[in-house]
Amino acid sequence: MSVVRAVAPPDNDKTLFGFWVYLMTDCVFFASLFATYAVLHTSTFGGPGSAQLFDLPPVLAETFILLTSSFTAGLAMLAAHRGNKHQVLGWLMVTFVLGAAFLGLELKEFHHLATTGNSWRRSGFLSAFFTLVGTHGLHISVGLVWMGVLMTKVWRSGLTAVNLKRLTLVSLFWHFLDIIWIFIFTMVYLMGSLS
Amino acid sequence: MNLAGRLTVSAFMHDPITMGGVLMMIVLGLGVVGALFYFKRWRWLWREWLTALDPKKIGVMYLGLASFMLLRGVADVMMIRVQQATSVGASHGIVSTDTFQQVFSAHGTIMIFFVAMGFMFGLINLIVPLQIGARDVAFPFLNSVSFWLYASGLALINLSLVIGSFSPAGWLAYPPLSELAYSPGVGVDYWIWSLQIAGLGSLLSGINFTVTILRMRAVGMSLMKMPIFVWSVLCAMALVIFAFPILTATLAMLALDRTLGMHFFTATGGGNPMMYVNLIWSWGHPEVYILMLPAFGIYSEIVATFARKRLFGYKSMVFALGAITVLSFIVWLHHFFTMGAGADVNAFFGIMTGVIAIPTGVKVFNWLFTMYRGRIKFATPMYWFLGFVFTFTIGGMTGVLMSVPAIDFQVHNTLFLVAHFHNMIIGGVLFGYFAGFSYWFPKMFGFKLNERLGRYAFWCWFVGFLVAFMPLYILGLMGATRRLDHYDASMGWQWLFIVAGVGVAIICAGIGFQLLQLAVSIWKRKANQDLTGDPWNGRTLEWSVASPAPVYNFAVLPVVSERDPFWEAKEANQAYGLAKYSDIVMPKNSGMGLIIAGFAFIFGFAVVWHIWWLVALALLGVIVSIVVRASDDDTEAIIPAAEVQRLEAAARARRQTA
Questions:
Q1: What is the tens place of the pLDDT at every residue in B412-424?
Q2: How far is A153 from chain B (nearest CA, A)?
Q3: Which domains does chain A have, with CATH numbers?
Q4: For the whole model, what pTM was predicted?
Q5: Exposed, middle or buried by CB within 10 Å (0-12, 13-18, 19+), for B508?
Q6: B572 touches chain A (CB under 8 A)
Q7: In B45-169, which ranges are continuous DSSP H helix?
Q8: Which of A94, B370, B597, B624 is the most buried (most CB within 10 A)?
Q9: Are B103 and B80 in contact (CB under 8 A)?
């Protein structure tokens, strides 16, 4: 050790790295729910199983909506790096609307299941289903609130450095939820309909 | 709709013993509030402590709360010991069965989540930034949120004593017992939400310190030049990152079962109780190592310092830490070999469990070889270390014994197991944190702890521990199961329970000495001042700054080229020198962490009592506070170079008087 100051430590983007680590913890969280679903998906307790309950076309629509919203979130980021505030706001708005549409379709499915006697109280399988898919939906809601707040910030103070960082984080979050959804679509809906 | 949920007046009615505890807490609380008014310290409390983002202050607050909870956990254990020593044959002891269940559940929960975790995060906050040559943690505000979430969980678990009751279902609340059908009261809900809130804090801390260690080390401090304590923390935080989300998910599922009528772990409706046991231990076993690894790190620092030698086998130490980190994720099933997973599965987990003894053994030998031919100085931290080597080795051997499934079947759920894990957690974890506390105490407060009283405390703990737990090994082999509130006189167990009770009394004397040590040391702090900042002839960077460390830690960020950089600098006569100071940017204090966690506390309380309007309000409060804080762009303050110059000159003057 010496007392002369050489160079400052490299200013790595701690926030970005920290957010990645957070995403990994969230990944483990979802992994626990997936594992639970895998254990319980046959525990229908005399009730209907996944093959009887799931209606694929609306879920496919949900999937495309969410994938598209990930794409538009990417376009918003590209616009942000070009410094085009209006395009950023526009694409964020599109992303927001698509996300809300996804959430609406999901709630519609939940509502349909619950009102036809197949709520989360029906069986271990349905508890696991509602929790896994619902947790994803809850994340989507958080993402929507975040996006809403961020839009007002960008609207007011423009594409400042700190707003750019926030945009990067929210888009990471959004893509992450997209990936989780791909797994839900595959493991819960596609494999469930086959069985 | 009932505005108070299921909260009624009867929630405030308790049996006499609980009432005594309630009264004590109320008196204590009123005493603190009164003292704050009398000495007019509210503003001081708010400015200097409650809003502090300085990890050193947050660390001290962690240690304070953990010590308080230690006293509560020990009060529980005194009741358990008296009950088991007296509740024989016709006598039924001092507490009812129901109270007894709450007492042992509270004891375990408090000791793990609020004592051990609190001590651990306290020491990490205090020391890690200093050891890596950083001025702060990666996310100072998040750190304060973590601490206050821990404090909220702690408040909630203490509130359960006053309003309602605590969980009767054991410290891990196995279903189906912990399900609504068998535990209809609020106890299990209190358990769930106090752990959920505190656990969220731990998870955020895990992220924070991982980033701190990986991104904020001094220039030149490559991974293999990090102090071993930092390595142990990095491994523990990796475990936090991977294990705590499982806890969050598991607790959430149990809560959904209980509040929304789901069927994850219920005995009916297609639920699977054993899945809970698997999930909770996939968190729970790593958790054991989350507590243990930093203690290993502390011992390594202490043994090198007091043997005045480089740590023997640094690289093997690091690899041992890494191996334990990985292995700790593939042994969880040894907590329930009796589940009946089959010989092949049990054999795998049994072997993996045995294998963990290898890296652990490597560490023990490294410590012994570090001492070999060292010029050992027997200060209090060294006593804790040597006591640890002895008790931990016994505990390790009984652990390896139980890793054999066939033997485990014999002693499963007996006091043999209880003795084993107390052997690891008292003799391993707690001794380590006590060692670290006395070792780093001067760095926190600028004066040393009284050595003589520290030794008395150690001997009481050490002897008391052996007297309290060796009988439990024997009792376990005689077939005494854990959590017994009553047994028949013909079992011939009573005298051993009485001996164990005497052991606890000796431990209590040790705690008495610790409190006395603290009081005497504060009283006579002028005589024990640490003027140099380096009271033990230390090796790592935290000793290169003044004691107590200045708010910015390092006036000039250090550049490192060796392991044990401060020792090397002293050897080369370059430890202290003059430098040119510049302005330092530090985060401003903020009360938002306290406010966010306060809403989380209200949320927890409202969910426990099903007061749904308050749940919604508290959630809204959390969200709004987060948004408000995130919108605050003015979060940093500058310490001018002149001020740094003044503080450093004062520290230098103090050092020269020593």
A1: 999 999 999 999 9
A2: 8
A3: 55-194 (1.20.120.80)
A4: 0.96
A5: middle
A6: no
A7: 55-86, 97-109, 117-131, 140-162
A8: B597
A9: yes
